[in-house]
Amino acid sequence: MNLEYLWQGFAVALTWQNLLIGFVGCFIGTMVGALPAIGPINGIALLLPIAYTMGLPAESTMILLAAIYCGAEYGGRISSILLNVPGDAGAVMTALDGYPMARQGRAGEALALSGLASFVGGILGSIGLALFAPLLSGLAIGFGPAEYFVLMLFAFATLGSMVGGQPAKTLIGCVLGLMLATVGLDATSGAYRFTFNEPELGDGIEFVVLVIGLFSISEALIILEHQGRGMTVIRELGRMTARMSDVVKSIGTTLRSSVLGFVVGVLPGTGASVSSAIAYTTAKRISDTEGTFGKGDVRGLASPEAANNATACGAFVPMLTLGVPGSGTTAVMLGALMLYNIQPGPMLLVERPEIVGGLVASLFVGNLILLALNLPLVQIFARVLTVPNWLLVPGILVLSIVGVYSAHSSVFSIYLMMSIGLVGWLLRKAGFDMAPIILGFVLGRVMEVNLRNALAISGGELSILFSSTICIVLWCMALLVAILPLYLSRRAKRRIAAKNLAIAE
Fold it and tell me: What are phi and psi of 193, to 5 degrees?
């Protein structure tokens, strides 16, 4: 395997100018990621014109944008863990176990451990990008609508892990998410569905509006409710480093989620929200033998963080090798290359190896910078929990409103977000989990579009869903994910029973 382009890239990325650009990009990206609803795509879109007008060379611009992208994936976890307000779509799953850890007085540990998981995911994703980009680009070409549909089915198979002790409420939440995903214009028939003659709903409910409403607004209402009852929110910060036992415990989950996140990232149009959801539910399905996921389990925290950072690296594979963006953020970066009259595609590595190599090398350097930047700042980030409620709640509301308005420039979106937040608060009071709603919404929309496209191609024949090797492999994986945890759970119960019997004798 010829890695000459990578060595050439390190020579570009390690110049003092590009190191400085990478550091600035990592810092800005972390801050952008920590702000709810802003996300890497908006941060890159804002800074791209500035970088271009400053006259930076193409490789330096790509290093800056890649650093912002990776930094935002790191930063998204901060508000998820501390405030239960996901900084971006990829950090939604992080809140499920990160926020309970913060409530238990382990905010510093959660931030440190998630930083390490992000680093491992980012480095493994960078290695995968450097080594397997040509091979995996061929795999991405093989994915058509039928393959995407079965992939989403595989993701739904992992949803069984979310059932827990309340299967009816989990199922209702999932169906609610699927119903919300059907709102808006039907791209196939051209009919408007469930818009109630409201033009703003023509494009459907935006993901950012739904996530911010369900998580941050409902959280603000819960804080107010507790305050009104005289209950105090836990403000202990705990230790500022990760426990070695927690690191060891989450190694397997982190490595598995990194690989899973990278492979999902290679597939165009999936993104960090899908990969972190699949990684979290897979980890819960395989590892949650004691029912601790969702209550502050370190594996539930490490899994989505490793996956979404690996996905960020995987998303560069189709962009650099095929000229097809793997996510919304890489779509903007694709536009950045075209600003410099550079055409991404199969010939990019041959014609401009310094750009591809510089970008890949900068991902290695950027992850080291982000680790060095984030771990010492854990104590500063964690002090957000010491902010009094009279300042914290308005802060959450202002950040949420500004984030949604900056993303959609619509007052209706703010009203919709507040309404969703109120419903989310009632659902949480009734004991519903928000994760199945989000998963049903994210996966359902992609699943429906690809199923209808596949059936349109085959003339309505369902055999297209079993017609390729990729489909068959995904069907087998879905069955495996559904069956394997049941087998492991029964085996663990038999071992416990045998152990108790031996003790009794």
Answer: -120, 125
- b or e along 84-96 (b: 16 or more beta carbons within 10 Å of the residue's beta carbon)? bbbbbbbbbbbbb
Going by C-beta distance under 8 Å and a sequence separation of 6 or more, which residues neighbour residue 293? 96, 97, 161, 283, 284, 287, 299, 300
- Predicted confidence pLDDT, tens digits, the chain (505 residues): 567 777 888 888 888 888 888 888 888 888 777 766 556 766 676 666 667 667 778 888 888 888 888 888 777 777 778 777 776 667 778 888 888 888 888 888 888 888 888 889 888 988 888 887 666 655 666 778 888 888 777 767 766 555 555 667 877 888 888 888 888 888 777 788 888 888 888 888 887 788 778 877 887 888 787 766 554 444 566 677 778 888 888 888 899 889 888 888 777 656 677 788 888 888 887 777 777 888 888 888 888 888 888 888 887 877 777 666 666 677 667 767 777 777 666 667 777 777 888 888 888 888 888 888 877 776 676 666 566 777 777 877 887 787 778 767 788 888 998 999 899 889 988 888 777 787 778 777 778 888 888 888 888 888 888 888 888 888 888 888 777 766 766 776 777 777 777 766 6
Contact between 482 and 161 (Cβ < 8 Å):
no
Rounded Cα distance, 246 and 254, in Å: 12
Q: What is the pTM of this model?
A: 0.68
Whether residue 213 contacts residue 424, with contact meaning beta carbons closer than 8 Å, is answered with yes
The secondary structure of 267-294 as a DSSP string is STT-HHHHHHHHHHHHHHHHH-SSS-TT
Q: Which candidate, 300, 262, 303, places its Cα nearest to that of 129?
A: 262
Burial of 238 (0-12, 13-18, 19+ CB in 10 A): middle
The Cβ of residue 169 has, within 10 Å, a number of other Cβ atoms equal to: 17
Provide the 8-state DSSP code for 215: I
Closest Cα to residue 71, out of 115, 9, 19, 112? 115
